[in-house]
Amino acid sequence: MKQIRLVIAEDMEIVRKGLKALITSNPGFEVVGEAVDGHAAVRQAQTANPDVVIMDLSLPRMDGVEAITEIKRRFPRMRILALTGHGKESYLTTAVQAGVDGYMFKHSPSEELFAAIKAVAQGQTYFSREVSSMLAQVCRMGNKNNAPLERLSKRERQVLKLAAKGMTNKDVADAIFVSVKTVEKHKTNLKKKLGLRSSLELAAFCVENGLTDDE
Question: Which range has highest mean pLDDT (67-76, 161-170, 202-211)?
Fold first, then answer.
């Protein structure tokens, strides 16, 4: 099985080294670069070409959100997982706006970190249960992105609900018997209709509207 290649962007050495030791203890992962500030994170993203960048948000010189924005500008397909100790909604919303693909806290169990890395590497978005609650709270407080489901066509609702369950574009395409390109087009239309800018914001909308609940 191909290893998932990672860059760790974390300025605190003891945390960075501990995270590296934890990750490399799993044979499915390989750490191919480390960064101690935002500028270094962008450089490592370019030179190491990882599958996933694990990004702390409180980095010197260039903070994590700025680094996420720059990496996404240069390498739109590169996947980024925010791993932070900050619980403020402002950090979450700015990271989402920057284009982060996943968000979780440093106090999360190691098993969840591994699951998050795998999900993000496979093209899915990932946020912990705590983050889901925070995103839902943002929506309840009047986030203008929370548009009504009535705007969507029957097919768009179907795609949205399947995507909310964590299914990849290919999984959704197979489930409703269409091409992956068609699913991507539906998702683009969904974002436009709902006023959303990223897949993570789309996932937040699903949480707020109960689309992730089991049938």
Answer: 67-76
**What range defines the domain where residue 115 resides?**
4-128
Does the pLDDT at position 38 exceed 60? yes
59 inside domain:
yes
Q: Tell me what pLDDT residue 134 has.
A: 74
Backbone angles phi, psi at 28, to 5 degrees: -85, -5
